[in-house]
Amino acid sequence: MDTNQSQEQPAKVNNFNRQNSGKERGSCSTASEIDLDDDLEFDEFGTQLAVQNAFTDSTELEETKDGFQDERGLGDRAYTPDPYLDDDFEAELGMDSEVHEEDLPFHDIAKHRILEIAGDDSYGRKVIVVSACRLPPSKDIDQHRFLQYLKHTLDQYVENDYTIVYLHYGLNHLNKPTFAWLREAYREFDRKYKKNLKALYLVHPTRFIKVLWLLFKPIISAKFGKKLMYVNYLDELKAHLHVDQLYIPQRVREHDAVLLEKNKPPVRQPSVAKTYLDTQQFGVSLQFIKEHNNYEPVPRVVRECVTFLKEHGLETEGIFRRSANANTVKTVHKMYNEGQKVDFVQLEDIHIPAVMLKSFLRELPEPIVTFGLYSNIMKMHTLPKDAKIVETQRLLLQELPEDNYVVLKYIVEFLTWVAAKAEDNMMTPPNLAIVFGPNLVWSQHQASLTSLSQINSFTKLLIDHYEELFTK
Fold this sequence. Notes:
There is one protein chain. This protein is about 45% helix and about 5% strand. By secondary structure, the chain is an alpha/beta fold. A five-stranded mixed beta sheet has the order 1-2-3-4-5.
């Protein structure tokens, strides 16, 4: 970016956080009905009666007129009031203490892994996966406690923009929640949980779930309704999410394969090897980028995003915790891959480079802190603090590939700059760790909320002890 140009347009840059670009768009495209086995359906007439009885006073449950003030449809940004950054999640996630799964709150419910956190989506928003097939029989679980567990888990993420993927397959007459529970849940999940929810993907919808949505529709905000998207096949998620990084139960994958075979037989085509442009930045290895860019050690997109954010974004409240206009993100993504010049000043949204930096990390074929280091990181929580520092330094200097080390060092150094301005931007090392941890480290296999806590703790250690750890 031309430095003179950035100096000529200070007013435009200073106004980034007060501007909301992008037009409101509808987000719900209903596909053809998919009927599942009888044991996964419910009596629609009974459903209707139950809903009518459960919600006899619909006005009691109506959203207030300003309940979704300045909210947008799927993929658009929404302004969030100042208090959204008041929380420090360090104590909540147990970053400074040894973490044992059995010591976590609600372990008796968390062990079923009904909720999983799966990094960021294509627009920089946290992804929460809910798997109905993992619900135990209703008689075996305290329904009120289950609701409190859901709130406890979501409370750690709802102050940021986030996305929910609900995997409906596996809900049946044994584990389905009661309508009394649904009524209580509707009341408990108030505006706090709805305002930053940017998309709700309902995967493998059945006739029951569509009827239920139609019955609830009159008492649900129209703006909230725009966030719902039916997804008949897992492949349809690829336009918005990193599907290969989602925690999807095997039985759901098998069910999806059956549906594809039954309703959407693949067309046989000769296999074609995937090719990349020489200028490609996203979805390719660090080695590929280096070899096609005059052996520059830091990828262009990382360098330009960090440089711009250092100049204009360090004092932005909530930097890295807001998403950006989906169409703009796609456009900039394409421009970088095609080698075009990107002028963040002209884009007038400070959150675009922040989202692009996270997206670059998440779209690497292998995390920048490689799969080979994952098990070592998971074992570090048993070590005292000084030993953690020694072990982390050993991993970085001896185990991490050189290309990865250089880029990781560049990014973590930048995060120390961001943390130094935490009084202005509210991004303390623990909060930065929550945002960046799942984008720096992830497992080849399914993880748990416990492992996520350990990843965040490791990331916080990198930021807090940058000078000690990155010594070459």
